[in-house]
Every structure is written in C-alpha cells, then in structure tokens.
Amino acid sequence: NMKKILIKTLILLFCFSFTFSQSKEKPCNPDDLAISKPIGITKLDENADKDDVFVYFDQSLSMKGYVVEQPGQKNLYVDVIDDVQQIAENIGSDVHYHAFGREIRPLSESKISQVIKPRFYECKGAAVECNNQESKINEPFEFAESMPESTHIVVTDLFLADKELVGGTRKQITKPIKSLLKNGKSVGIIGVMNSFNGTIFDIPKKDGGTFEYLDAIKRPFYIIVIGDQKNIN
C-alpha cells in the first residue's frame, strides 16, 4: 500500500546513511561507483561552482494536491517552498532551480512562482512531452553524485512505484546515495504533514494493477538535502 512504499523508500535512505556513518571496520562494498551525469540534465552545470545550490521540485501529477486548498486543513507547502528558496540563496553563491518528473528541466527564476500553482503539475496542449507522469528521483540523486561539492535540495512526495524499488531501477536510486555517503557527504530528510486536495495515482493493489485515491485530506511531503553536514543543519 501507499504507506508501505514510503516506508520502504525511507528505510533504504536511512539504512545507507547508517551504514556509512557507523560501520568503519566492515563497510559495505557498493557496486561500481563510477560517476556519470544523467541524460535529463542540460548544460546547466558548465559554469557551476562548488558553492552553488541545486533545487529540484517534483512535478509529478500527485504533487498537485499540495497546492489546492483543502478547507479546514493547514497548508504549509507554499510557505515551505518560499523558505527553501531563501535558505538556498543564503547557502550558495548561485542557485539553480529545476523541475523533475520523467526528466530534469531547468526553471528560470521568473517561473519558480509556478511551483505553488496547480498548472505547474498539469500538462494541457504542451509543445513538449509531459513531465508529470513519472517521478524519476534517481536523476536528482545522480546529478548530486556528479556535483558532490554542491548542495542539492529535493522537494518530493517520495511516492515511488514498487517497480522503482527493485532490480536495476532500485540501483539507480541507491547507487548515488551510497557514493555520496561513502565520500563523506550527508543526507537529511525532513517530512512535513500538509493539507492535500487532489488525486494520488498508481497505488498498487495486492492482486496486481493500480488504483487512484481521491479522499486524502492530509499527506506528507519531504525535503531531501544532500551535501556538507553544516549546510544540511
């Protein structure tokens, strides 16, 4: 179910954090840690400095429910997005904003305000392929691996399909985290319970297939911060 998937994802991330921070005598032997830059990234890193901050907003359609008001419930998402921007600008000399779904796409500063509007998560008559049907969180992780001296902030619901937590796809998620932790970087995860007024898509059924859930009035979102411990703190 949905809770099980979120728990599995969090356990994966915390497990790797604990392994590399605590096990000095018998460390894991992670798979090939060769660094490669994800295809979805454009040439945004050509002039990037190690003090730069990279921010990634999950653009999958399930995120839309956070920006639609739910009567009687507290909406913190809008305030948190503003806080993330201010903190990022205090940490780094330059901040690079992106949306991610099926791929990572740069966001100009003039378009960051769209993140808190429903249309940011919609795809109607788009000239380019829709970016809201998947949530490839491995791509921000892979880019963080390729730019380890920078700080990376990911805003997401951490909702991944079962197929994304097994086999080669799971490795795409875990390998960059292993590499970063092995090289002395830290990963912080902050969960925020928020109002929700939308649809949660692709929830797996026990007997196979998926279904949609429309009755949630609250749901957590997560901020993942990757980089030096001082910046995460």
Tell me what you see in this structure:
The chain has 233 residues and is α/β, with parallel strands linked by helices. The chain is 28% helix and 22% strand. It contains 5 helices and 8 strands; from the N terminus they run αβαββαβαββββα. A 6-stranded mixed beta sheet has the order 3-2-1-4-8-5, sandwiched between helices. A two-stranded antiparallel sheet has the order 6-7. α1 packs parallel to α4.
Broad structural category: alpha/beta
Gross morphology is globular
First and last CA, distance = 32 Å
Oligomer state of the chains in this structure: single chain
Biggest β-sheet description: 6 strands, mixed
Estimate the helix proportion, in percent: 25-40%
Compressed to H and E, one letter per element, the order equals: HEHEEHEHEEEEH
Average pLDDT, rounded to a whole number, is: 79
Q: Could you tell me the radius of gyration in angstroms?
A: 17 Å
What is the β-strand count?
8
Total helices: the number is 5
Read across the widest sheet, the strand sequence of neighbours is 3-2-1-4-8-5
Identify low-pLDDT runs.
14-44
